[in-house]
Amino acid sequence: MIVLGIDPDFDTTGLAVVDTHRLVGLGIAKSKPGFLQQAKELEGLIDHICSIYAIKLAVIEYPFIVPKGYGSRASAHARANPNDLIKIAVIAGAALNAVQRAGVRKIKLVTPSEWKGTIKKEIHQKQVLRNVPKLEAKLKDWPKTQRSHVIDAAGIAWKYRK
């Protein structure tokens, strides 16, 4: 089954396409000059991906807000500026709109803890790099600022590929 994983953020959104046993492709949408432009770029990128691959499932991560008092156990998004969370929600909504418009029949929205549990991000990303074939080699020349979201997108798609 071909799965599109999407890790939205207000500065860079990671995308990954996997099938049952292999990584098919990676991509990013950046927020230059702003997050609304990123939403438009992301929709175009998803349209393009869906025109090339027969995406059976799209999995989109969405942020959540943790009540005060959860401290360091909460993710960076959960402790983020509420305006940033709204921007991420706009990006996630653009991704959802694009996959629906492209005719993807199965769509899953997941929180970070649903797909990666409570493992620290750095540890989980190392696990994703080990588990997804050829991911580390494909990311070798990518800027570090873009790698994180692409790794997460690959991890999301890989988890739901079966």
Total helices: the number is 6
**CATH topology type:** Nucleotidyltransferase, domain 5
SSE topology string? EEEHEHEHHHH
Estimated share of beta-strand residues: 15-25%
Instruction: Estimate the helix proportion, in percent.
Output: 40-55%
> Total number of β-strand segments?
5
Q: Could you give the order of strands across the largest sheet?
A: 3-2-1-4-5
**Overall pLDDT metric:** 88
Poorly predicted tracts of residues: none
The CATH superfamily is known as: Ribonuclease H-like superfamily/Ribonuclease H
Basic shape: globular
Judged by helices, strands and strand pairing, the structural class is: alpha/beta
Identify the CATH class: Alpha Beta
Query: From the coordinates shown, what is the CATH architecture?
Result: 2-Layer Sandwich
Number of domains: 1
What separation lies between the terminal Cα atoms?
A: 7 Å
Structural write-up:
With 162 residues, this protein is an alpha/beta fold. The protein has a single domain, classed as Ribonuclease H-like superfamily/Ribonuclease H (Nucleotidyltransferase, domain 5, 2-Layer Sandwich), CATH 3.30.420. Helices cover 46% and strands 19% of the residues. A five-stranded mixed sheet has the order 3-2-1-4-5. The chain starts with a strand and ends with a helix. 35% of the residues are buried.
Keywords:
single chain; 162 residues; alpha/beta; Nucleotidyltransferase, domain 5; 5 strands
Detail the topology: elements first, then pairings:
Blueprint: E1 3-7, E2 12-18, E3 23-30, H1 35-52, E4 57-61, H2 82-101, E5 106-110, H3 112-116, H4 121-131, H5 135-139, H6 144-159
Parallel strand pairs: 1-4, 4-5
Antiparallel strand pairs: 1-2, 2-3
Helix pairs in contact: 1-2
